[in-house]
Design brief:
Helices cover about 25% and strands about 25% of the residues. A three-stranded mixed sheet has the order 1-2-3, with no helix packed on it. It has about 70 residues and is α+β, with helices and mostly antiparallel strands. The mean pLDDT is about 85.
């Protein structure tokens, strides 16, 4: 399996606002997956914002915009 085939993302913590920002592959935007991420990082009781980023994608069309793929 190639690196670009594995859905991935990033969890960032904002000390000032006491909140989390989660960027991830759009294929992961399912309630069950989001709930597991919240539980794993113990974020159930803090404000969380979710976002997409082209750097965290497995979509071939989106990847081709970033790389000569």
């Amino acid at each position: 399996m190639d690196y670009f085939e594995v859905p991935r993302g990033r969890v960032m913590w904002d000390l000032k606002d006491i909140s989390a920002r989660i960027l991830m592959d759009s294929s992961l935007f399912k309630k069950a997956v989001q709930q597991k991420i919240l539980q794993f990082f113990h974020l159930e009781k803090v404000p969380v914002s979710w976002g997409r980023d082209n750097h965290y994608t497995t979509n071939i069309d989106e990847l081709s915009k970033l790389f000569d793929y």
